[in-house]
Amino acid sequence: MLPSEKIHDYAKSVCAQIRWKKARAVVAEEIENHLVDQRDAYIADGAEEAAATEAAIAQMGDPVAVGTQMDRLHRPRPQWAMLALAAVFVCMGIAHTVYLNWGSGYRLMLDLFLFQTFGLAVMAGAYFMDFSWLGRYPRILFILLMAFFTAAFALRETEGILWHFSELVLLLLPLGFAGLVYSLKKRGSIAILICEAVFLAPVLLLFIVEEQWLRSACVLYIACAMVTLCVAVSRGWFRVKKRTGYLLVLLPIVVTILTALVIMSLNGRLERIWGTFHLPYKNDDSYGWEGYFTTTQAVLAGSKFIGHGVMPDGSYFSPGGGFILTELAYNYGWISVIPILGLLLSFIILGFRRCFRQKSVLGLLVSVSVMVMLTMQTICALLLDFGIYLFTGLSLPFIVSPWSMEYFADMALTGIMLSVFRTGDVLRDRAIPKRRLFLAGS
Amino acid sequence: MTIDKALLSGSTAMLILKLLDEKDMYGYQMIEELARRSDDTFNLKAGTLYPLLHGLENGGLVSAYDDSAGGERVRKYYHLSHKGKKLLADKRSEWERYTRAVNKVLSGGVSYASI
């Protein structure tokens, strides 16, 4: 047997003890590298290659003992707590939908069952998927999603079904953006500017499209992309000084936000939003969102800590479809809302803590982009639920709208994020071979 | 002189953290450096070092990154994290307290600090 084969065989024996197959390659590479370094040192001291290899292997020790210790250290992390929280949210969503649609016939219940099952299958599939392909082919997802969205936008008048899926595409886009950022390792300031151009482009959509849900999805994507880019800068991913990096990221964003505020101020939208923060909101127009905010805030003002609330003017409150928390607060008191808020907060805190424990930048970027998406969605949906106008068209992740695109996007994103938390420990950030960047033309 | 293994294993993590406090290193480099600085007293086995390093990495005390070792080879470098620095400071003061106490006993109750 050749000396190099002996080294390879030794590493193989160590890795045979590690039950988690994904961890084997990383351990094998490190051990082989060590043995080669040690062997070369012995050769430099005058030993023959065969003797030097034997001595290096002997210095490492018993492969079974080393492998057994490595096995104890390398295990997937199934994320039971986060899975349990997601399951609780899904169950709450089912209970809420059944409650709202009780008596609507078995057909609706069957649809609900099918959608929920499909949503859970999407999440399970993503959870067990190997997310590291995003690192191997970092720009594919982004390009595919952008191509789909552009086609759907161009054909929106004639191909309504494509346009219907565009919300799903926009909500998944932060994942593609994380891949794009990952592919631009050590590319300097120009990489930051490229990323910025890519994530600020949807701002134009805000002025073109009419659909509120699409505008909200655009804003979510921009926020996710901005945070992802800041995290990459903080990790020195682009090899740019942090101060310069933050300046390059934040300056155009501040300019964009200020421009948006001026436009919103001119068309009266800013005033409407600001008005809803002054509780309780009153608007004489009892139709549309204005009427909803007035009613919701009145209902919340009449809600008790425990027990059924009373409308201040004695009128009757009829709950809407998606505003579960206002409804609970009014019917059963704030005591029924607090545990849900606590669970949502726990999910968010747990998620971000896991994000910042990621060893690889790919794992960090992917998980942060998902967590920002879910957090923003939760905050906007909670504010809307409580009658405060920030963005409409968003619902609480997992809980509300089990048959919307948002629901499927949330399930897929959560599955991928949990896959990162489960297996991210063994992922390494490598220089990406140029052939794998072909789709972006590098 | 060979050092008792029990005595060595308790302090190995501290010694590794100390090496990484000065600069990022890869496994083989740590073994060499440790042997050099201790006049070959600490000849750490690679089979002991790597599980220890992976444990420290899992605990967030060190982080790892790959860097080229020339040609196709890639080496895994370890970097001491903020949490690791804190642990090193704690371990160091614990060690100093321990050695002071041992010395005091060995010298028949006379503290070196008071001499």
What does this structure look like?
The complex is a heterodimer of chains A (442) and B (115). Chain A is mostly helical and 442 residues long. Chain A has 3 domains: 3-73, no CATH class; 80-267 and 337-440, no CATH class; 275-335, no CATH class. Chain A is 70% helix and 0% strand. Chain A is built from 20 helices and no strands. The longest helix of chain A has 25 residues, at 242-266. By secondary structure, chain B is of the alpha+beta class. In chain B, helix 1 packs across helix 4. Chain B starts with a helix and ends in a 9-residue tail after the last helix.
State the CATH topology of chain B: Arc Repressor Mutant, subunit A
Please give the radius of gyration of chain B in angstroms: 16 Å
Nearest-integer average pLDDT of chain B: 84
* Computed CA radius of gyration of chain A, to the nearest angstrom: 27 Å
CATH architecture of chain B: Orthogonal Bundle
The best one-word shape of chain A is elongated
Largest sheet entry of chain B: 3 strands, antiparallel
Could you tell me how far the N terminus lies from the C terminus of chain A, measured between alpha carbons in angstroms? 42 Å
Strand percentage of chain A: under 5%
Number of helices of chain A: 20
Q: Strands across the major sheet of chain B, in which order?
A: 1-3-2
Greatest interface: A-B, 27 and 24 residues
Biggest sheet of chain A, open or closed, and with what strands and sense? none
Uncertain parts of chain B = none
User: How much strand of chain B?
Assistant: 5-15%
Report the end-to-end length of chain B measured between terminal Cα atoms: 29 Å
- Total strand segments of chain A: 0
Order of helices and strands of chain A: HHHHHHHHHHHHHHHHHHHH
What ranges of chain A have pLDDT less than 50 throughout 5 or more consecutive residues?
434-442
Question: Could you give the order of the helices and strands of chain B?
Answer: HEHHEEH
Class of chain B in CATH? Mainly Alpha
